[in-house]
């Protein structure tokens, strides 16, 4: 069964300079945000309101719901009592706040409780979501170690709540990456990479833009930017042990049909086709196909490079950043061989260098008479 899970960093409330009875005060003036996928307009005050509303509305449209929402919260934004009630590790330090909205003054035990109440009022479906605040703790003198620890802890918390490992592929992640200091964005990205590696699916990475990138406040899905990490990992996998699977996934390439759901040119399709054929040949050690597959790959790469000057496709421009690494990783294997023996020996040495010892032994046995 599909589990829809949200993650976010809770941003501090924007307070007025003047306090009232020693309480921080906020003048609530919601702004209109255009939600993505044609979900309409949402009027939000707090940084995280519109992105979370986007998640909830999108799933409602699909007759689904967000089951759990994990909120990274600093101790300054949640009260001590709330932290205990939620079972947080650590102590909350928020002493309360006052909100002014439409001439009405309302007190809240914390910034987090203020946000939760606003979300329940703005999005009725929010009441069905299990809210899980996680305190973001750190020490300045041990910041890096604390960040690493929190990444591992946060990831483990999500996986534990999702159930056994065979349930993880049914988990769909919706992330709001708008708020927080830069290191929090790095944390969120790392957590998402871990979850994706464990089989969970990143459905959305939402960013709330305050009329910086457009002429209006708008929600953007920037997941494709995060997918670049997958592409880089895929390039490493292809250079390290000849697997083209991750690169094919990034470009949504179906090797059986030789098509992609992304807009790619014929030259890039040719490269992906050649990479797939070499990957198949080296993985199952098809000795007769490996040399020709490498020569075909070299030709496809050269053709792609020659036509790059005339291409403005984003996919082509992105893949171009991998060309030098791929060519350096395969070295002499991509050169037109002076003799079969020379080419065979280079392939065997490459297999040994990459730790593909079974392939190296098989190829050496098959090709020894030629070498």
Walk me through what this model shows.
The chain is α/β, with parallel strands linked by helices and 371 residues long. It has helices at 49-61, 80-86, 111-122, 143-162, 182-197, 223-226, 228-241, 245-250, 266-283, 290-307, 314-320, 323-330, 340-353, 357-367; strands spanning 3-9, 24-27, 31-34, 41-44, 68-73, 97-101, 104-108, 130-135, 171-176, 201-209, 218-221, 253-254, 259-260. Helices cover 45% and strands 17% of the residues. Strand 6 and strand 7 (104-108) form a beta hairpin. It is elongated.
Short characterization:
The protein has helices at 49-61, 80-86, 111-122, 143-162, 182-197, 223-226, 228-241, 245-250, 266-283, 290-307, 314-320, 323-330, 340-353, 357-367; strands spanning 3-9, 24-27, 31-34, 41-44, 68-73, 97-101, 104-108, 130-135, 171-176, 201-209, 218-221, 253-254, 259-260.
Labels describing this entry:
371 residues; 45% helix; alpha/beta; 17% strand; elongated; single chain; 14 helices; 3-stranded mixed β-sheet; 6-stranded mixed β-sheet
Please outline the helices and strands.
Layout: E1 3-9, E2 24-27, E3 31-34, E4 41-44, H1 49-61, E5 68-73, H2 80-86, E6 97-101, E7 104-108, H3 111-122, E8 130-135, H4 143-162, E9 171-176, H5 182-197, E10 201-209, E11 218-221, H6 223-226, H7 228-241, H8 245-250, E12 253-254, E13 259-260, H9 266-283, H10 290-307, H11 314-320, H12 323-330, H13 340-353, H14 357-367
Parallel strand pairs: 1-5, 1-9, 2-6, 5-8, 9-10
Antiparallel strand pairs: 3-4, 6-7, 10-11, 12-13
Helix pairs in contact: 4-5, 7-12, 9-10, 13-14
């Amino acid at each position: 069964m599909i589990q829809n899970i949200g993650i976010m960093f809770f941003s501090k409330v924007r307070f007025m300079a003047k306090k009232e009875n020693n309480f921080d005060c906020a003048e609530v003036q919601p702004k209109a945000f255009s939600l993505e996928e044609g979900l309409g307009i949402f009027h939000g005050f707090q940084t995280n309101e519109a992105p979370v509303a986007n998640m909830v509305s999108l799933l409602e449209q699909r007759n689904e719901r967000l089951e759990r929402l994990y909120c990274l919260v600093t101790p300054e934004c949640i009260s001590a009592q709330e932290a205990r009630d939620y079972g947080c590790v650590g102590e909350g330090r928020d002493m309360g706040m006052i909100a002014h909205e439409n001439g009405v003054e309302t007190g809240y035990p914390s910034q987090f409780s203020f946000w939760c109440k606003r979300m329940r009022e703005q999005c009725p479906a929010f009441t069905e979501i299990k809210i899980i605040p996680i305190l973001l703790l750190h020490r300045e003198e041990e910041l890096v170690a604390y960040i690493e620890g929190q990444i591992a802890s946060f990831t483990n918390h999500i996986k534990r709540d999702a159930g056994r490992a065979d349930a993880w592929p049914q988990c769909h992640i919706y992330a709001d990456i708008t708020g927080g200091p830069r290191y929090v964005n790095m944390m969120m990205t790392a957590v998402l990479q871990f979850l994706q590696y464990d089989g969970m699916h990143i459905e959305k990475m939402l960013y709330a833009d305050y009329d910086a990138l457009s002429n209006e406040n708008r929600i953007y899905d920037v997941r494709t930017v995060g997918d670049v990490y997958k592409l880089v990992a895929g390039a490493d996998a292809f250079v390290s042990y000849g697997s083209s699977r991750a690169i094919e996934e990034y470009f949504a390439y179906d090797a059986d049909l030789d098509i992609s759901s992304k807009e790619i040119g014929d030259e890039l399709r040719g490269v992906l086709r050649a990479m797939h054929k070499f990957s198949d040949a080296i993985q199952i050690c098809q000795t007769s196909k490996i040399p020709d597959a490498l020569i075909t790959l070299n030709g496809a790469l050269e053709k792609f490079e020659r036509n790059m000057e005339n291409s403005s496709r984003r996919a082509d421009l992105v893949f171009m950043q991998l060309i030098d690494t791929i060519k350096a990783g395969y070295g002499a294997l991509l050169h037109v061989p002076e003799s079969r023996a020379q080419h065979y020996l280079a392939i065997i040495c490459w297999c040994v260098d990459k730790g593909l010892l079974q392939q190296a032994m098989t190829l050496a046995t098959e090709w020894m008479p030629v070498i």
